[in-house]
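thought: fold this chain, then report.
action: predict
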Amino acid sequence: MYGVFCSVKTEENKMKTEQKKCLGEFLRYALMNVSGMIGLSCYILADTFFVATGLGADGLAALNLAIPVYSLVHGTGLMLGMGGATRYAIFRGQGADSNGNRVFFVTLCLSVCFMAAYMSSGLFLSEKIASFLGADEAVFSMTETYLKVILLFAPAFLLNDILLCFVRNDGNPRLSMTAMLTGSMSNILLDYIFIFPMNMGIFGAVLATGMAPLISMAVMSSYFIRKKNHFRPERGEWRAAMPGSIFSLGFPSLVTEVSSGLVIVVFNMIILRLQGNTGVAAYGVIANISLVVIAVYTGVAQGMQPILSRSYGRGRMDESRYTFFFGICSVVILTAVIYPLISVFAAQIAAAFNSENNRQLGELAVSGMRIYFTAVPFAGFNIILSIYFTSMERALPAQIISLLRGFVLIVPLTVLLSLTMGITGVWMSFPAAEAIVSLTGLAFLSGKRNRKTK
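observation:
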């Protein structure tokens, strides 16, 4: 009897030790990645603040119209980076380093195709894209300039996103965070210099944004110069299924990023009809705060991913469950901080982006923030769950969750609620969609557990 008791006690102590080790690693990856993602999202916040101050409501509206294209470019980089790096981490966990190197090579090859497409669009289609996004005569020129420069800098954005993901999955989240933060802080400084002392207007804002990934990659270059990296391009022989695997595992990251851009496009078109350019400018405030909030949850999720993928590759499912649990706890804690702060300081946040003291803009932004951001607990849970399924090579549930969030629910809900409730319905569509997706995600989790118990 005593021997059985000691055996149980030893097992409990072993489990607690594993949990503490897993928690420490989770915190190291998640905190660094959240810091980096917040810094990354500050690109757009800096643009928003300086453009609003220097160019007024028209500049803010032009920036908001162009953000979806930035989201598409950045989302493509995350799709390739997260998809490729997830496969790399799984192979590395299995000890198959050569396969991991081939994944990196294929990821780079795929990125070249997207680079060519985006640069061509910037050179030849920027005016048509600006018209499609709803830019009117007052903001067309600024919108078209922003779009052209962002698309011409697409190679820098894509390569930076890929390297950040691979470096993080190579066991160096600190360097990944440092690179993101350095690029973002440089962007903020350059924003100020280009817009105010140099009086470069919207071109200065987008030029600063385009230079940020170049600075980020310069920071990471020391990792490769000193040959600390475990991954390198390796041509070898690779199956045709490999690109499909990268797209499949990275697709949820693309949809998560692009969904914010899609929501902006739909909201802009509806709000233009309901409230005009002032309404679009008010939504610009909300959309850009939303980018930072979503970046926090995405940071936690992307911080989880290397641990989940490695644990899955090694067959250590307990570590995967602990990591997922810590991710959900993080969502709860962050939500308890984020929503009260936004709700209480909504007026001050709106005023920071309202240099002309436009009363209508301020009122719309304040009421919108308090409704719109009730979505944060659901959005956080959905992002964590999507990355969890991706890391465990369960691409289909991750893709369904991402598609529901990004395309399937938000568009019809926005149209329906705006018709019945006006601008209030527009603000309510985001939390309604995220809540429905959360129920779907819980059903996937429940189904997974039920299959295990049979």
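thought: worth noting. The chain has a mean pLDDT of 84.
final: tokens above.
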